[in-house]
Sequence to fold (528 residues):
Amino acid sequence: MQSQPDSAYSLLSTINTDTLNAESLAHWYLLKAELSHRAANVPLPSSTDMEMTFNLYRKYKKKEKALKSEFYLGMAYAAEGETNKAMDTYTHVYQKAEENNDYQLMGYVCSYTADLYSINEFASESLKKRKEAALLFKKAQNQRSYVCALRDICRNYAYMDSLSKALTYLQKADSIGKTLNDKNVYASLLNAYGNIYAMKHKYEKAESYFHQALAISQDSISDYWALIDLYFQMQSYNKAEALLNKIPQHSAQSLLLINKTKYLLCKQQENYADALKHLEEYSLLKDSFFISSNESKILEIENRYKHQKLMTENAELRLRQTGYLLACAVCLIVVLAMLWAYFGYRKRTEKKLLLQQADIRDTRNRLLELSIEMERKNALLKHSEEEEKELERMREEMETLTARYRTLRENMLESSPAYKKLHQLAKQRKPQNTRTLISEELWEQIKQQAQKIYPDLRRYVIDCCPDLSESEWAYCCLYMFGFDTNDEASLLGINPSSVRTKTLRLRTRLNIDLPAQMSLYEYITMQI
Fold:
């Protein structure tokens, strides 16, 4: 995991989490969180997953793993924008680490707390935490983290325009960094030198340091962009263009930034034709990147929904099993009591005096047994109530995830090219227009986009109405875009009353009986 985190994550991803029990799943999430701390391309588990992991380890009193999972829970809160929750979690982890004299964990907590302060523009508080982190890493004898903390202090001072102090701390980090034999860390120091000298307008020195960083860095993207920004400041546009062509184009985000920078570069060079070309490519990539991002979020929510559904079904199964056991136990007690009374009656009739004493003794013992048994059953009943509450919480979370899933589908639909074209046509509002504004090509795009966003739509309407015509199917797809009556009337070149008639006819064809206070659009989206 330490030497090859990417390979470790690839291996971890092959495990089917649906087959894991609660403890194994918690261990899987903890491993994933540790890998995300070591590799930038490994996503951090969600706060919900880390809460489950932390609660499980705390329940089983595995203190070391509980503390680790709580630290990563704070990181998950921070990644999701829950600043207050992240701060509270980091504070608690710091206190526990301080009790254990775990200076390294205390240093990491201070570093991430400083990041939160920086995001919220509390520069002085951020600087204080970074200095504390440096001292803690030094106590822990973690030289690499100590050098990184000094570098971050330098960046903090540079942000506060204290360039002389920034340079002092950077030189101190440089003297130690040369001994580490860590190319990435040393490249980050050279990058910091370049940024400081660029802020001092000493462009030649800054350029030299950026070139040195590029020569040794294994992850050189940030150095490329820093040097390009420097060339823009120097107005050396030819150098910026040459360097721009060398940037690796491994990701969509890199392509996006490259096209944006090429647009700015051509604009500065007054090459407006190429500038327009790169601006169009940038806009297309941006739209594509946004759509892909929404699709990945939808997929993530679907996976979480499936996992939550499985957990809910397991909880219901456990609840039913507990009920069955409780019912069997009660029946057994009743049967045993009846048998005991029967045999007691026979014995009392045969030996009245002697067996009366024995019966009293046996009855006392049985009452004690029954009391113990009832206490155990009461404990089981209390446990069932707790599971019922957990089940209710899971149902609420499923409802929240479902609502978020529907919102993301609507956002994805509204960001599609077909929706944008339809919205533009609808707003034209041509008076006395009796012809549809939608071309055949646009009708095809409407049907394709509706089936892309709502994959089960076709199956649903065909099940409801097998003889649905192609024109009715096309109107159904348009209806799922969510336009109001006036916009639909403008697009189709008909009166608003005719649109309401078409909607009513579609509902009748699909044989849908709407509940009170619910539109046809809301009803169909709930079914698919």
